[in-house]
Amino acid sequence: MTTHIDVMRHGEPVGGRRYRGYSVDDLLTEKGWAQMRAAMPASPRWQHIVSSPLKRCLDFSKDLADSLQVPLTVEDNMKEIGFGSWEGKTPDDILAGDSEALNHFYRDPVNNRPEGAEPLDTFSERVWNAYLQILEKHRDKHILIVAHAGVARAITANILNMSLDDVYSQLRIEYGAIIHSSVDKDSPPRLLIKGPALS
């Protein structure tokens, strides 16, 4: 038997482009709702939904769980990474204080964290442990995790054994994007690239 775990990034939140970690709890815009609805397969097969506790994920998750008549679990360890002193700030806000801060961050996100930010390796470990717990609890089912770009990157990095620097600097996760993974019994998780016929 195979377990399928899909990770959907939330849609566009209110407030425009800014650094939202777990301390910024913005709602989705109407466009954000539309992005997530557009990403859904025509006939969803999800049997359980797991959501980040943040509203940009949880509001959609509740609506979808009601629509599909499937259980919903809120998982605190699927919340976004903490951005410390950058929480709620726009790129322009950050550059006003340090013109090189973003360049340093994107070149080496592991060692150039904002002040007070959650360490990237700690974040990756908490997300991966939560993923493995979900996998163990829901063997042979099709699960949807509604979470964040950072969460999708952390899961991808662990499945592909990529360095955190590489996955955070090279992998872009759009609003509403879905990362598909599957796990066969006694085998490690793998990414699953789906075409339209499999959706």
Describe the protein.
- The protein has 199 residues and is of the alpha/beta class.
- It has a single domain, classed as Phosphoglycerate mutase-like (Rossmann fold, 3-Layer(aba) Sandwich), CATH 3.40.50.
- Helix content is 38%, strand content 15%.
- It has seven helices and six strands.
- It has helices at 30-39, 55-68, 91-97, 101-107, 120-137, 149-160, 164-170; strands at residues 2-9, 48-51, 72-74, 142-147, 178-184, 190-191.
- A six-stranded mixed beta sheet has the order 3-2-4-1-5-6, sandwiched between helices.
- Helix 2 links the parallel strand 2 (48-51) and strand 3 (72-74).
- Helix 5 (120-137) crosses helix 6.
- The longest helix is centred in the middle third of the chain and has 18 residues, at 120-137.
- The two termini are 19 Å apart.
- The mean pLDDT is 93.
Features:
6 strands, single chain, Rossmann fold, alpha/beta, 15% strand, globular, 199 residues, 7 helices
Count of distinct strands: 6
Total of domains: 1
Strand order of the largest sheet: 3-2-4-1-5-6
The rounded Rg comes to: 17 Å
CATH architecture: 3-Layer(aba) Sandwich
Low-pLDDT stretches are none
The name of the CATH superfamily reads Phosphoglycerate mutase-like
Beta-strand content bin: 15-25%
Outline, from the CA principal axes? Answer: globular
What's the SSE pattern?
EHEHEHHHEHHEE
The DSSP helix count reads 7
Fraction of residues in helices? 25-40%
Alpha-beta content class? alpha/beta
How far do the termini sit from each other?
19 Å
Profile the largest sheet.
6 strands, mixed
Mean pLDDT: 93
Task: Output the CATH topology.
Answer: Rossmann fold
Q: What is the CATH level 1 assignment? A: Alpha Beta
